Amino acid sequence: MSVKDNKCDSHPVYLRFRVYEGDGGYWRTGKRWNSSGCDANYAQWHNKHVNAEWRIYALRVEVCVDDWGTDTCRASSPAYNPYF
């Protein structure tokens, strides 16, 4: 996974996973930050995994901007677990 600030507005960006479990609820993983500004390269993370107490139904990648109040976030389409 990787994230880069393309807007150059002094607001750091981050990404995380939304993990959906079989009961319909979800939780979020920790934030992976890129606070280096718009002139920096992508911040990258390799070989990440998610541990869940229950079986994982689906995942979404959530990309956010750390702006005033509630952060502005967008989520990917869900990637469903074919073994659920």
| Beta-strand segment tally | 8
Contiguous helical run count: 0
Mean pLDDT: 87
What percent of the residues sit in helical stretches (DSSP H or I)?
Answer: under 10%
- Overall, the morphology is elongated
Sheet with most strands: 6 strands, antiparallel
Kindly, what is the distance between the CA atoms of the first and last residues, rounded to a whole number of angstroms?
Answer: 24 Å
In short:
The chain has about 80 residues and is an all-beta fold.
For this entry, give a set of tags.
84 residues; mainly beta; 6-stranded antiparallel beta sheet; two-stranded antiparallel ribbon; elongated
Structural features, described:
It is a single chain. This protein is mostly beta strands and 84 residues long. 0% of the residues lie in helices and 42% in strands. The chain contains no helices and eight strands. The protein has strands at residues 2-3, 13-21, 26-28, 32-34, 43-44, 56-65, 72-75, 79-80. The strands form two sheets. Strands 2, 3, 4, 6, 7 and 8 form a six-stranded antiparallel sheet that branches. Strands 1-5 form a two-stranded antiparallel ribbon. Strand 6 and strand 7 (72-75) form a beta hairpin. The protein is elongated, with a radius of gyration of 14 Å. It starts with a strand and ends with a strand. The mean pLDDT is 87.
